[in-house]
Design brief:
The chain starts with a strand and ends in a 5-residue tail after the last helix. The protein folds into 2 domains: about 1-160, no CATH class; about 160-233, no CATH class. It is α/β, with parallel strands linked by helices. Helix content is about 20%, strand content about 40%. The chain has helices at about 120-130, 170-175, 185-195, 215-230; strands at about 1-5, 10, 10-15, 15-25, 25-30, 30-35, 35-50, 50-55, 55-65, 80-85, 85-95, 100-105, 110, 115, 135-140, 145-150, 155-160, 165-170, 200-205.
């Protein structure tokens, strides 16, 4: 496996594929890629800022520690990693992971929100039917609750059931979780978006375990409220 270490990378990736490559302690500054396949690629203790991936394919990849900053030390300007569309097959996240937003393909974005493409969703469903597992987050500690509007189906996510419960569309539609009010915290927004979107049919709720103690406790308390009414499992 080729190793690239301690480099600052700032460019649009034009390659169709990156394979058998390990990035160690690299900084990705304003990087982007469209329809790229990342196969057997590892990112170890890297940083990124203002980076986005459009319709990527992850195959057998590892991200171990990822800060969304280009500053030195613990500070600096932060900006989430944005993913639009794409597919994951055997993508492992572990260690401390910064802000992550996984949205539908950017071409589906319209003035009033997302224009969900039924044909595109059907193709995506067929792809995931052939995958044994898509995403492993059991060893990941997120600094904020990740936004997974277009992430893999929850059933294909390897998770820690104690802190990362599963919610199905059926459970979310059958229970009156809205009656719990603002005590749910961020999960009220997450579930509202989930039930209004056609994809996926189950999600994993991922608390910000790498955030400050008060935020961690707030996220976990909301999850216990959802477990108590049978929404989260």
């Amino acid at each position: 496996m080729k190793t690239i270490a301690d480099k600052t990378i700032s460019k649009h990736l034009k390659s169709d594929a990156v394979e058998d490559t390990r990035f160690e302690r690299c900084a990705f500054d304003n990087c982007s890629a469209r329809s790229v396949t990342l196969r057997h690629v590892e990112f170890l203790d890297c940083r990124c800022w203002a980076c986005h991936l459009d319709d990527p394919i992850f195959e057998d990849c590892l991200i171990s520690g990822l800060r969304m900053t280009i500053g030195t030390g613990g500070g600096g300007r932060t900006h989430p990693l944005r993913i639009g569309g794409g597919v994951a097959k055997h993508l492992t996240l572990r260690g401390r992971i910064g802000s992550l937003i996984w949205n539908p393909p950017y071409k589906w974005l319209v003035d009033h929100g997302w224009n969900w493409d039924r044909r595109g969703l059907d193709r995506l469903q067929r792809v995931y039917e052939e995958i044994d597992w898509a995403l492993d987050i059991r060893g990941a500690l997120f600094t904020s609750v990740p936004t997974l509007h277009f992430g893999p189906p929850g059933r294909l996510i390897l998770r820690d059931p104690a802190t990362q419960p599963l919610v199905t569309r059926e459970r979310a539609n059958s229970a009156d979780w809205r009656a719990l009010g603002f005590g749910l915290g961020v999960w009220r927004v997450v579930l509202d978006s989930f039930v209004k979107s056609p994809w996926p049919d189950e999600i994993v709720l991922v608390p910000a375990m790498a955030n400050r103690r008060a935020k961690r406790e707030e996220d976990l308390a909301g999850l216990e409220m959802l477990r108590a009414i049978g929404v989260a499992n």
